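quick one, three chains, predict together pls
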Amino acid sequence: MTKSERADNRKLDEIRPMKMKVGVIKRADGSAEVEFGDTKVVAAVYGPRQIHPRHQERPDRSVLRCRYNMLPFSVSDRKRPGYDRRSTELGKVITESLQPALFLEEFPKTAIDIDMEITQADAGTRAAAINAASLALAHAGIPMRDLVTSVAAGRANKKLLLDMTKEEEDAPDAIDLPMAMMPRTGKVTLLQMDGIVSPEDIEKIVDLAEIGCMKIYEAQKKALHEKYRS
Amino acid sequence: MIMTLKLTKEHILENILKGKRLDSRKLDEYREIKIETGVSKKAEGSAKVTIGETIVLAGVKMATATPYPDTPEEGVMTTSAEYLPMGAPEFESGPPREDEIILGRVVDRAIRESKCIDFKKLCIEPKEKVWMVFVDILVMNHDGNLFDACGLAAIAALKDAKMPTLTDDDTIDHENLKGSLPIKGTPITIAVKCYKGKYILDTNADEGEALTSQIIVGSNDDGTVSSLQKCGTEGITKKEIADMLKLAVDTSKKIRAKHFK
Amino acid sequence: MDNEVKKEIKVEKVKDRTSATTEIVVPGDIIKESMEILPGTGTFREGKNIISKVLGIAKTDGRVISVTPLNGVYSPQKWDYVIGEITSINFSNWSVDISGPYEATLPIAEVKGYIERDADLSKHYAIGELIFAKVVDVSKTKYITLTMKDMKARKISGGFVVELTPSKVPRLIGKAGSMITMIKQRTNCFLSVGQNGRVWLKGDHEDIACKAIKMLEEHSHTPGLTDKISEMLDKELKKGK
């Protein structure tokens, strides 16, 4: 499982070069920029703050609202700005992947807003977005049970792979399984998959994703410490 | 939610009358301007502009389209600006608001009316097919002076852009880029704010909240002016307009010399 | 391979994070495995472990471990002094923005002196006016009540306000007020600090005092901060001459 069999010379269980930087958007309460190879995302958090529209208010907790958005020039063919079904779905699943980690009950009647902007897309954008959002939440000082860490694993050309590129995702037998987890408890908070695959292989892919998550967790912790290095 | 406390706004105005600013700058002094191009690999051209803490990203994408009937041999350009929700607490997602639309249109006009782009060269087949240039400008962090930042980002991204090629089956090959866009000159937009006979450049977010009257001037390499926009709810005298125009043109020359060699 | 990775992380986790005084912890970090020690603010218990819930600096004080957050919005506490701006005038109270997620209320009954029925409340506090007030109540549902019936409470006029992360307010005040006294004396400015992170200043070298607060915001977690700020003040004041 260590031989280089991938176009970019990576090992099968190797993540693309990662870059993480905390505190990139000054106006926001918390922010982070994350890169996985050619995938780049910026996430920023505002809140807890007063909630608008007021009918979304919950008397017993804060409401987490996530926006996932691709910039028009982040993909080859310009993406038209505005509403689309994919972004709406991703906003929702990302919200659910982060929510278990938060002590939302500490801030009744408020909103916590996360804006995730994909500035350059080359597969694995939702995983990169979750990693950035998790860093931004921590940076904003929002109480959390754990960081949330995410990566996609899958299959391409009959091989099980971690953190696939767009090129690998385009293989005829490609399986893409994005996953997020809370590393301390090992609980999975996001799981999606498409393609035809045996349940046994799914287990293997999930194991692979877990290895990836643990590596990313270390990188996230390092990025948070880096911000406050004297 | 309060953006800038009333007390702070009043203090900013009092200081401006004395020629002072809270961050010790002179009234016509800019914060550091940084222009970085080629920041997004998927774009035909891109630029990130920072002025102080303000961060703006612009990207150019190209597509093919049928030309407008009244200009059958000319390519098309659309420029739009958007406030990303991350840019400031008051920015919300949803359809663009007036301010965003005006920002995009003012920047668009400064570039378009300067005639710096040779739209005839963007024609592929008269009446049938032309290149369409999309310039998308995004405000990532708002600490004032968005007009200057967005104008700089747009022109820097356009100058950075390379033309995609058309394959034999008529699709666009975004990987295979060839040659620059047909651009000559560097139009620059400068916003000059005024308050009781004082002229202020490069206002930060708090100053922008306190000072509302301004003129945005698009000017060219030869000192000509190609677009003007007065914003704000107060009137401006003719003398003030003349002074502000001169200040804007002079400032644009300095920025051009420093950042667009 | 899978197990190897997990083992590595486990070893890392058990490390005692309270040994160094200024150790930075991130949410989810296990600070200590102990039933003897109590989880203080910024932490929670899960089984035997005391875990950090915020990004901050872990401290042990006797039997309690707590984490001071490096960031975060203002969470109002009873008896806090805050700087607020009047945002609206209602039938029998004023709404006050105290920054952070909750708006506060100043009832007529909490204002010095007698206010007649049907009086024009804007004559007392108008929209946009700034007050230095005391929090007298924080309800479970986060209704925040302010009072002006306090020695220190007053209306603020002139000068301007700089914002600081609320968790850094104690750092700005310093040990026995050392930091704030230094900034006040050297810049010859009046300074009032609200627990909500709003700092009001007015005086000779406002810009330099403002710079000192911004510097504290950036470097609050670093040692030798008082010296750094003192040095900066010297340099800036010399420049002005």
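Chain C has three domains: 2-69, 81-156, 160-240.
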